[in-house]
Write a structure and sequence with these properties.
Elements (H helix, E strand, L loop, with lengths): L14 E8 L2 H12 L2 E5 L2 E6 L2 E8 L11 E8 L2 H10 L3 E8 L5 E6 L5 E6 L15 E8 L2 H12 L2 E6 L2 E6 L2 E8 L8 E7 L3 H10 L3 E4 L10 E5 L5 E5 L29 E5 L40
Parallel strand pairs: 1-4, 5-8, 9-12, 13-16, 15-17
Antiparallel strand pairs: 1-5, 2-3, 3-4, 6-7, 7-8, 9-13, 10-11, 11-12, 14-15, 16-17
Protein name: VOC domain-containing protein
InterPro entries: Anthracycline_SecMetBiosynth, Glyas_Bleomycin-R_OHBP_Dase, Glyas_Fos-R_dOase_dom, VOC_core
């Protein structure tokens, strides 16, 4: 787990930390450092990720058995009002508690859990403090979404876990809200072989350039910018490793809180939130060589009005439907 980072006093329902578990931490540092300009401060087997001097994430080297194909993954930390209650909810609603409760320095008390669909996350007990809900600069976190083959069960689980309310923004996509703010999304996926997980999104200035650079660094582009039928401003990139998304807010400036679902590009009218915009999903180079699995995203039907900067029917370069 992470060293002390001083992020305990935040609103319940906020994702407060992102932690990459990876076999080859040096490779991860090289990829993310080159792609996003991140810097790193070492704490033994743990690296704190710095963006403009601000601690935004961690990278933990996780040893695996020789010959293991274990993939890297991002594990998100979710603030909850009552850790004991959240742990009990996890157990009684189909999830598992792996570790905890445990003291996590200035981050407060926490527990490592899996939800009812085996998506990993850390629960952190927190105190409401909405003043910390500030925008992240370029190359920082913009959004988080979960891929689920049973989104209604996922919605019920997370409503009870962290007090979320939800909006069905578009067919197959739901937005989780707390304290009046958009916090994360749940996407319905149809590939039963795809691991259920939380996927973070990173704000970038130019998705096209990010996609190109990710390929140069060893990532793989499944859908290039301009290749999706309903937009010229999105790409889908993947590799065998830890998925992470990138998006441009469409304004050229640092915006407020994220106000879009990152495939669909919808705008929310709340004046303190930023604009929707362009999207790319990136994955670091594989710990082991192999072919990535694309997310099993079903195009919405019936067709809805075209949102600004949204993706409609993405198809990979080999012509297959996701």
């Amino acid at each position: 787990m992470a060293p002390e980072t001083g992020v305990a006093h935040v609103s319940p329902g906020t994702f407060v930390w992102h932690e990459l578990l990876v076999r080859d931490a040096a490779q991860a540092r090289a990829f993310y450092g080159a792609l996003f300009g991140w810097r790193f401060r070492s704490h033994g087997r743990y690296d704190v990720v710095l963006l403009d001097g601000r601690e935004i994430a961690g990278i933990a080297a996780v040893p695996t058995a020789k010959g293991s194909m274990a993939a890297a993954r991002w594990v998100l930390s979710l603030a909850v009002a009552d850790l004991a209650r959240a742990m009990a909810h996890t157990r009684t609603h189909g999830g598992q508690v792996h570790e905890g409760p445990m003291k996590m320095g200035d981050r407060g008390n926490g527990a490592l859990v899996r939800d009812l669909h085996d998506a990993q996350l850390v629960l952190l007990e927190s105190v409401p403090n909405e003043s910390v809900d500030t925008a992240m600069p370029l190359n920082g976190w913009l959004w988080d979404e979960q891929w689920s083959d049973d989104p209604h069960d996922s919605l019920d689980f997370y409503r009870g876990l962290a007090g979320f309310s939800d909006i069905e923004q578009r067919d197959g996509y739901w937005i989780l809200k707390s304290y009046g703010m958009w916090r994360a999304g749940i996407r319905e996926v149809f590939n039963k072989g795809l691991e259920r997980r939380w996927v973070p999104v990173i704000r970038v200035a130019d998705p096209t350039d990010t996609a190109r650079q990710a390929e140069t660094l060893g990532g793989r582009v499944l859908i290039g910018v301009g290749e999706a039928p309903e937009t010229n401003h999105a790409a889908l990139i993947a590799g065998v490793g830890a998925l992470a998304g990138c998006a441009n807010d469409g304004t050229g400036r640092v915006s407020g809180h994220v106000s879009y679902t990152y495939y669909h590009g919808f705008h929310d009218p709340h004046p303190c939130w930023g604009c929707g915009g362009d999207t790319v999903i990136v994955v670091p180079p594989a710990d082991k060589p192999g072919k990535p699995k694309p997310p099993g995203i079903r195009p919405p039907k019936p067709p809805l009005p075209k949102p600004p900067g949204g993706i409609g029917r993405p198809r990979p370069r080999d012509g297959r439907r996701l």
